Amino acid sequence: MTETTIWDIDEHRGEPPGIRRLALHESLRHLESYLDGDGILEPRTVAPENGGNPLVARSGDDGFFVCGWLDVLNLAGDSPLVDCEIQRIRDEDGRLFLTGTRDGGTVDVEVRQLTDEGAARLDALAGATYVPPHWVSPVDRAYAPGDAMWDGVLDLWRDPVMAAAPEYAARSAYLPKVRLSASRLAEGTWTATADDPTLPGLDPADPTGLSMGGADAAAPTL
Fold this sequence. Notes:
This protein is an alpha+beta fold.
């Protein structure tokens, strides 16, 4: 197995909270850009496959949460990552995992992205389950065992043609720069400056992170 760290709070423990939040925010911006397929921060292809399609998150056997945006995972009340402090984001052979803590417990979530075929199938499942005038969107919803759409969403998850691993680490243009910066810092051969483009998350207009609360800012969340 090949594992690539996208974000790990332990790598940033010695930083002021404001700088740590900036680094996490920068990592999430690039990951979100890749999943959205907008081609701005993380280009995929001219016509990015799966870009912008819904995401499916699963935590153990506790069910699924389907959402349209990565940050919804930290906001929606029925998401497994709601109100979590993000500890780690990693890629395992193309599979994407986010780990957070909440109330002393740890939540580990895998996130996959629906293909065009998977997104169409999800809409078809909803159309067959929620008959008008009571049709509801299948996105930004949780699905637990026993729900009317559970079996259908489970089948989507199990089929890589329908729900694909994002393969972010293998395609990212951003992560190699982050690894390079971390390596240079560890070797003591580099002094961080606000105008160094290889320093992830550092805003030249706000190098101390004061705009995000400064040194006493809250712990980073998604």
